[in-house]
C-alpha cells in the first residue's frame, strides 16, 4: 500500500536534471508522452487533417448546392405541372360547359325534329284520310251514277222507239264532243 501512496506523493517530485534514468511514475510519463504525441500529430497531421476537413467541407457544400439545384428544378417542375393542371382544368370546364350546351342543343334539335316528324305524320294521315274519303266518295258517285244510268236506260228503252232513241244518242254524243273540246 505504501507503494501506491508513494506514487501519488511523488507526483509533485521530479527527478533532478543532472541525472538520467527511468521515470517509473506512470501518470507523469503518460502526460508527457501524450503531450509529445499530440504535438507531433498536430504538427504533422495538421495538413492532412485540414485537407480532410476541407474535402469534407467541399463535399458538404457540393451536396448542399446540388440539393438546392434539385430543389429549384423540382419547384420549377411543380410550377409547370400546376400551370398544366390549371390549363387542363380550364379546358375540362370548357368541355363540360360546351358539352352541356351541346347536349341541350342536341336535345332541343331532337325535340324539334320529333315535332316536325309528328306534324308530317299527322299531315300524311290527314292526306290519306282525305284521299280515301275522296276515293270512297268517287266510288259511291260512280255506283250511283251507274245505277241511275242503268235505270234511265231501262226507262228509255221501255219508252222510246228506235227513231227517238237514235236522236237522243246523237244529241248526247254532240254534248260529250262539246265537253271534250272545252276540257282540251
TrEMBL record:
Any single GO CC term annotated in Swiss-Prot or TrEMBL for this entry = proton-transporting ATP synthase complex
TM regions (residue ranges): 26-49
Pfam families annotated for this entry? ATP-synt_B
> What Gene Ontology molecular-function terms does this entry list?
proton transmembrane transporter activity
Q: Extract the coiled-coil ranges from the record.
A: 64-98
Q: Per UniProt, which keywords does this protein have?
A: ATP synthesis, CF(0), Coiled coil, Hydrogen ion transport, Ion transport, Membrane, Plastid, Transmembrane, Transmembrane helix, Transport
Which InterPro entries does the UniProt entry name for this protein?
ATP_synth_b/b'su_bac/chlpt
Q: Where in the cell is it found?
A: Membrane
Bilayer disposition of the protein: Single-pass membrane protein
Q: Which GO terms describe its biological process?
A: proton motive force-driven ATP synthesis
Chief location:
membrane
Provide the function of this protein: F(1)F(0) ATP synthase produces ATP from ADP in the presence of a proton or sodium gradient. F-type ATPases consist of two structural domains, F(1) containing the extramembraneous catalytic core and F(0) containing the membrane proton channel, linked together by a central stalk and a peripheral stalk. During catalysis, ATP synthesis in the catalytic domain of F(1) is coupled via a rotary mechanism of the central stalk subunits to proton translocation.
Q: Could you tell me what this protein is called?
A: ATP synthase CF0 B subunit
Q: Which species expresses this protein natively?
A: Heliopsis helianthoides var. occidentalis
Amino acid at each position: 500500500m505504501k507503494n501506491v501512496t508513494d506514487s501519488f506523493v511523488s507526483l509533485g517530485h521530479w527527478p533532478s536534471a543532472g541525472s538520467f534514468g527511468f521515470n517509473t511514475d506512470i501518470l507523469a510519463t503518460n502526460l508527457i508522452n501524450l503531450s509529445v504525441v499530440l504535438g507531433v500529430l498536430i504538427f504533422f497531421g495538421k495538413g492532412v487533417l485540414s485537407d480532410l476537413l476541407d474535402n469534407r467541407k467541399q463535399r458538404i457544400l457540393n451536396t448542399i448546392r446540388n440539393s438546392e439545384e434539385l430543389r429549384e428544378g423540382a419547384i420549377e417542375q411543380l410550377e409547370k405541372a400546376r400551370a398544366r393542371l390549371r390549363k387542363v382544368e380550364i379546358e375540362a370546364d370548357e368541355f363540360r360547359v360546351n358539352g352541356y350546351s351541346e347536349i341541350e342543343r342536341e336535345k332541343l334539335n331532337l325535340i324539334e325534329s320529333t315535332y316536325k316528324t309528328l306534324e308530317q305524320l299527322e299531315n300524311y294521315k290527314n292526306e290519306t284520310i282525305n284521299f280515301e274519303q275522296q276515293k270512297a266518295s268517287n266510288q259511291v258517285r260512280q255506283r250511283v251514277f251507274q245505277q241511275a244510268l242503268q235505270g234511265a236506260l231501262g226507262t228509255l228503252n221501255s219508252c222510246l222507239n228506235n227513231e227517238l232513241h237514235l236522236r237522243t244518242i246523237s244529241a248526247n254524243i254532240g254534248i260529250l264532243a262539246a265537253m271534250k273540246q272545252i276540257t282540251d
